[in-house]
Structure formats: C-alpha cells, structure tokens
Write a structure and sequence with these properties.
The structure holds two protein chains of two kinds. By secondary structure, chain A is α+β, with helices and mostly antiparallel strands. Chain A is built from 21 helices and 21 strands. Chain B is an all-alpha fold. Chain B is globular, with a radius of gyration of 26 Å. The chains are: A alpha+beta, B mainly alpha.
Amino acid sequence: MPNITGEAVNIPAMKDAFINRKYIIIALIVLASLLLIIKLFHVQVIEDSYRLSAENNVLRYVTQYPARGLIYDRNGKMLVNNQAAYDLMVIPTQTRSLDTTEFCTTLGITKDLFLERLKAAKIYSRKAPSIFLKQISAETYARLQEKMFMYPGFYVQARTLRKYEKPVAAHILGYVSEVDENIIKKEPYYKPGDYIGTSGIEEAYEKEIRGEKGVKIFLVDVYSRLKGSYENGESDTVAIQGKDIISTIDLDLQEYGEFLMQNKSGSIVAIEPGSGEILTLVSAPDYDPSLLVGRIRSDNYSKLQSDTMKPLFNRALMASYPPGSTFKPINGLIGLQENVIFPSTTFSCSNGYLFVSCHTHESPLNLAGAIKNSCNSYFCQTFRKVLENPEYISLSSAYEKWRGYLSQFGFGKTLGTDFVNELTGFIPAVSYYDRFYGKGRWKALNIISLAIGQGEIGTTPLQMANMTAAIANRGYYYSPHVVKKIGDAPNDGRGFTVKNKIDIDSVNFEYIINGMEQAVNGGAGATATIAALQDIIICGKTGTAQNPHGEDHSVFIAFAPKENPKIAIAVYVENAGFGATYAAPLASLMIEKYLRGQISNKYLEQYVLNLNLIKK
Amino acid sequence: MKRTVNIWARIDKLTVFLFLLMVVLGWLNIYAAVYNEEHTGILDLSQRYGKQFIWIIATIVIAVFVVIIDNRFYFFFGYFIYGGAIFLLLLVLVLGKEINGARSWFEFGSLSFQPSEFAKAATALALARYLNSRGQELTRLKILLPAIVIIMLPALLTAVQPDMGSVVIYLSFFIVLFREGLSPYIFISGLLFVLLFFVTLLFNNLYVTIALTTAAFLLTWFATRNWKVCFTGLAILIFITGSLYLLDFYLYKRLGTELVIMIGLILSGISYAWYIYRQKSVAVLIMYLFLAGSILYVNTVDYTFNHILKPHQKERVSILLGLKSDPYGTGYNVNQAVISIGSGGLAGKGYLQGTQTKFKFVPAQSTDFIFCTVGEEWGFLGSVVVIGLYMLLLLRLIFLSERQRSVFSRIYGYGVVSILFTHFFVNIGMSLGLLPVIGIPLPFFSYGGSSLWGFTILLFIFLRLDASRTEYLV
C-alpha cells in the first residue's frame, strides 16, 4: 500500500530479527534502577554522616551565656555588678559577599582589621562561630542591628561584663579575663572567647560564680537566617545564672583602708577573730578594678604590669617580710608554755643583749613590761632558754618544738584561705641551719635574731593578722576567708568552720595580751601610745621589719576590744620606719572606724594621710 | 478506513494512571521544596507550586489534544514536525534569551518556552519514520548514517546553545538503534568509550596508553595463542622505543620520557601494522585496530577535556571524578544534594519537614534537584517507590512498544523509553553524586512548563499510537 511518497508504510512487524534485544534493554533499565537504589541505600540507610552534615547545615547552636554572680559586701552593699556587652560573631562558611565599606563604617573599624579578623576566624574554624569583634558598644549594636540581614554569617551574641560600683577591693575581687588555649585544653567547658576569673574571688569561686552555659538550637536557612527554634526548644538547655557571692568584706572599712593607704605601699589585713572572716584586705598601691574590664583591659593590664610600684602585686598575701618585734608575743607565749619563763620572770637589759642592741628603757622588766617596752634582751634570753631547754635532747629538737608552735599559728605554710595565690612565708627548718652551719654545729646564739622576728624568717601580712586573731581568741583561729555566703548557702565545705587549735594554754595568752594592752595604753615607756583610743582597749604590738633595700617597714598588729575582740588587724607600711610611726595610728584609725563607724581623732587621720612615700 | 474503536477506551490506563500519579507527586514535592510559612496557599500563583498547578492543568489539556489528533498525523507529518523543531532550535540561537550563559529559551512576556524539550519528541518521530521502512538494516552504513544524522542534528544544535545535558539525551537514541539492529559491537564500543572517557580523565593518559597496550597484548595472546605474533610486537616496541630513548639521551636530550614512549608507540605501531599485514591474522588485526583506536581516543579525550570543554563543565566532571574536592565551590550543589537525600534516612523526615530543601541548601531544588526533596522527606522507602514507579512506567512502555503491529509505533515507543530512561537515570544519578551535574529535569516531577509539556506530548503521542495499534496508519 504505497503512499504519496512512494514509501511503503505500515509494514506490520512480521519478521523482527532483534526481538530478543528487548530483554537487554529491560535488563539495562532494571540494572540502572538497582544501581540507583543501591546508592540510595548506602547514602540513606548505611551512612550516618549525611544526617550529621545536614544538622550542621541547619542547626545553629547559640550559646546562652549566664550572667556571672554578683558580689556583695558583708552588709549587703554591692561590690560587683554586671553590664551588657555585645560580641559580633562570624561563621566564615556562611558569609556571603558584602559591602565591606559600609560594614566597616558601621562598626568603626578599618578594612585591614576586617580582613585580618575574618582570616583569623577562618583559621580557627570555617564552620564554627568565632568572635569577630569583641564588646561592641550599645550604640554600635543598635546601628548594626538594622543592617544585620545584609550580613549573613554574622550575628550578635549578648554577653555580660563586670561593673564595679566603687573603685575598691581590686585585689580581693580579682578580675575576669578571656580563657587562653591552656585552659581550653584542660577544661573543655570553656570555649574560645569565654571569660574566666583569674584572681581573687573571681578565680577562687569561678565554678560557683560563672553559672552554667546553656545552648539554644535554632534552625537556619542557607542564608543563615533564623527560622525558628529546633523541636520547639525541647533540646535547648537553659543557662543557669551564676550564684551571687556575699563576701566577708566590710565595704566601708575597705574603702577607708584604701583611703588611708593612698600614696603609700604596704598592706592592711583585718580579720574578725571569732569567725576568721576577712573584713578588709588592702594592698597598696592598688588600682581601679574597672580598668580591667572590656576592650580597655589589655592596654590597662600591660600598663599596670609595667608599673614599678607593682599595683597588681597582692602584698597582703604574697609579700614576705620579717615580722620584727610583732613576733615577740609569740616567743613570749612559747616561753610560757615551755615553762622556761613565767609572767614574773625578769631579765635585765643594758641597751641590748650581747650583740643584739636595744633602746633605752627601764630595767629589769617582767614579761608584760618587756612587751610594752618591746625589749630585745628579754626575748633574746627567752628564746635562748627555749632552745637550750634541758627537756630536749638537743638544740635541734628544741628548735623543732619551737617551729611546731609557729606552724600551729599558721606560719611557714598556707592558711587554707580561699585565695589561690597565698604565699607560705618561711620559717627555717633544722636542715636549713644544718646546711648553713654544719649539722649540730649551730647554737642558740647563731639564730638569736629569730627571737625578735628578724633573720631568715618571712611572714605575710595575712599570716600576721591571723596570728593576731589567734592571740585575740586566746589560742585558736579559723582560716581567714573572704566569702561568707554563696547564693543563699553558707560558705562551708572549704574548712572555714574548723577550729585550728594551738597547744598553748589560754591562761598564757592573758599575760601576753596584758603586755599588748600595756604597749598601747601603758603610758610612759609604752611603744604604741599613739594608737590608744578612748573607751576601746586596743591590744597591740609594734614592729619594725628590717629592709636591706631602704628605710625599714613600719608594722603594727592589734586587736580590739580586749574582751570579746571584734577585729584583729595587721598593718604594714613600707619604708615608713618604726612601727609606732605610721602603722600603729593607721591600725587605730581602722579599729575605730570599724567599731565606732567614725573617727574621733581627725588630727591622727590627717597625720596618716599626709604621709606620702611614693615619689611622684 | 472506518474507525472501529473508541480511542479513549483503548488508551492504556496503567500508563495514564502512572503519568497522573507522577505529576501529582511532583507537584506535592515542588510545594514542599518551595514551601515557606508565608505562602501556604497551595494555589498561590506567585509561588512555583501555584504556577505548576497551571502547567499541570494545561498539560492535561495538551494530552487530550494529542490524543484527539488522528494517529496518521504523527506518521505523515513526522518529518515536518522534525523540520519545525530544527527551525526553532536554530531560531532560539538567534532570538533566544540568554539564561545562565545558555541561549535555550524563547521568552514571550512572562512566559518562556524551551524548544529543545519538544525537539526530543520530534526527533523520536522522525527517527521512527525513517527506520519504519528500512527493514532493520542498520548494519549497512548507508542506512545507519542518515539515522545518526537525524539524531545528531538537534543534538549539535542544542550543544551550541550550549546545553550539554540535552546532548546526552539525544545520544540515548542509540538504544533505539540497538533495538532495531545496530551492531552490538558498536553499541558496546560506545559504552566502552564513555567508560574510557572517564578513565582517561582520572589517570594520566600515558598510563592509560600503556595499560591499553598491555591489555591488547594479553588479548592477542588469548585470541591467537601465538607467542610469535605477541613477542614480535613486544620486541618491535621495545627495540624502537629503546633506540629512540638512547638516541635522545646521547643526541638531543630534549624529548621527555612521555614523548619518547609516545613516538615509540607510534613508530612501532606502524611497523607492527606492516608485520600483521604480512601475517594476515584477522584477530590480531582487529585487536590492533581496537588498540590504535583506543589510544587515539584516549589522547583526543585528554585534549578535548583540557582544550575544548568550558571551565564550568570541566569543573563538574572533575568534581564528579574526585579530581577536585571543593565542597563550597562547584561541588557545593552535589554535596548539598547528597547531604539532603542522605539525611532522609530510612523513612524520611516527613512531608514538609525537610530542613535541607526547605531552607534552600539545595540549589535548583524544585527543578533539576527535585529528587532531593523526595529523598529527604520520604526517605529511602519513598525514594524506592519513586524509582519503582519509573521502572514500572518504562517496562510498561517497552511492553506496549513490543505489542505494536507497526514498526513506526514500536520505534517511536522505544524512543519514548530511551528519552524517559535517560532523564530518569541521569537526573537521579546526578542528585546522588553518581553522574556529573548536567541540568536535565526529572520527567513529570520537575518544576517547569516546557519540560512537563514536552514529556506529556512525547508520552501521549505514543499512547495515541498504541490506542489505535490495530488500525493501519493509512
């Protein structure tokens, strides 16, 4: 049936030589489909990594930073508050090209800085967020917020920074800084850009004060726009606020102490003897803690660090001085307890004992008189009797006994405070002298200067304040500490309620305390009459810490009132000479301020303030 | 001749059912891919699913028209339709709108139209018409060459748009040729050459050449068991290459080792050809020609890849072959596609719950990468169902083709099978990272009027032919 083109059409498929090839084509289709199914099975059922990749794509983990706990003084006055800050974060893989000029103008940064920061972020991680610009101001944040949609890959993270109500107590409070790599390696809780307490209360109570970070999981699209929360927030964890800290510090007293210590270097440590609570801890010169907050931190830190007066150095805890005459009460106590002297024992003094000189005073003196007059001879002879006590088989073992008493007072070891960087001080062991003089070849006279708190001995102001508290308590102390309460709970679990008893009968303390009372209130011959107050009996002892580098340090320890003492204090004024000159009036002012809340002797206050030992 | 049957009653119900099912499933997946909370109305015409709804209504109208038209129309006007398609393909090169660097679209106001989608059906018609009366004599070059011209003409015209994806589709007509008697050697060689293409790009062509030579020697030995022939070849090769190397070493010192081996191969090849000619061994001669062809091909591919392919095409092939790992560059698409499919797991995340596609991590997710939505939201089970639907459709079409009494209808049917199969396999294969990313749609699923209408016309012409398979075309 030919058609118009002459072509044979509609040839029925009569003879089809290749009909079996349909099976090959069917096989091809089936095999290809199987290939797809096998690959699908691998990708969807066997391999798990795609699911993870998908989650990384879609889920944005936004860390919820808890606010650090606030810090209050013992009377509920605020010391440390928080302020809001904003970190601009970047996830490099999610950034798209953007108007760099406008971006930089908004942020007030240079293009070089922009490129540098972006590069640094990429080096840290392409997929994980890192801080692009730290702590941008609220105004910049407001300006940026309007344009945020133009900058995919960038987002703002709210943070809190410290805010200090008053420029005081920097050494107690410590400061907060960004974690470094070592910390991140050691403690996986911290991520780059996190803050951590690096000294003082901030460091010691970091775990309690920091709270717990939370995480909110958001869904984001390819432009990293938030598309709502993941699983309606069921997997989110809430940030737990840090606990507030009630410190033992008395803000008014602390402020007053720093006020008095202006233009001087040294320290004041005041302790409530009945509890070991540190009322005041001044290390002069100090600094305004606000200097170490936010973006100004690193600049200020290096300035403070290069200051020759070492304002960052916490003298109260870390400076080791010879205690000088403030050590005499201890030696008197040991003499009494070892029964080598009695309260009535008298020693004569003719301006010194052997090669240890002494000032002119009435002679002979009993124990109380010796403390009142601070007689060197008396304590040299007492110390010699302690060491040459026939009760002991050798001088070394007598010395060890003596050293044991000192250890009970907290010398030569840390006191177990809540400060991390407490210094032990130094009370030489027998082996020290054995090495120095040869074993068994040293006598009491070789180390006689220990009797008057000089020589190799080293103690910190904190230890001296603690010793004073132990004397005030008539034989025991609680480890000094700066935190009273964490949140609503008392600060226990750190051993601050453990009574550290000293093996000296309390009656012996009374004799020594009488001497200390005399030293302040004893009239003629008393070394610290300048510290005397009306109505309040201050028991004190002056000291002069020898300083080979210049003028001696003025030292004074005291507690008051005599019965039921409320405050024990140690005052060090570096390069101020005799203990009576500045340390004693300073301690007196502090005691009056604490017990009375006001100062009766304005002249004395002015006298202390006029002292300027820092050459400008 | 009187029409004896109602064509509507004779349309293949299963195929129509599969067609409608796929179109609806496709539409649901487009809705999921574009879905966002602000536009939830499923008929919102500003959104793609709204538009696709219109395309679907239109495509059903088109299908009806295609069926209404007399079956003889497709036979008689086969060449005219083909000619019209070629004309449009030429016209689009001149008047077409350039989108993504390719001139493949006509634009009339807000409507756009892609002629290459319709040219496929036209080519199938022309090929069927041509082979109808050629009595399965494709082994004769005189018969074969015009068929190849019919196939390659639209392929070349789409290639210059450039739209390499569609070129692959036209190559699939070789399946039709194979069914109609094309030598399996040519067919298998074709497949081998595709394979060799990728192997060449993966490895240094010198190594491929050496491997091919070694393979040829081994095959020669298996075929002839003649040590003399093999070792003569080896001896010639070693002698010529060795002396060339020594000559270069002492005289020029300029040719690299690669060049020495290449020249050695060519010279020894010529000498060996002369030797084989003298030996008159047919098996060795075939092997020799095969080897020579392969080596020539390998080096051509290398040259093509490095000098002819466009950079973005080179990139895509490179990524696929793992020559380059660049998850945020060119490979981003594939990577994200596989991630979204993989994240679906066994049972999927549930309809409209796919996060990867919904949040636009997958590019072209409603068009070329529509399968990602299926994979992510319906999981392995859903994906297998979709693949199963395609397999069922293709096998049904083969069954229908085989029951045709007219050669024309059968060949056209295989044309439909070839085109749909290639689209299906290449599209899903590229979504899974098995094949390079060439932008071709998934039939009936992908968003787009042109492609949906093109596939509908392609399919329904065949259903129309099948409905009147008992009639004569004239």
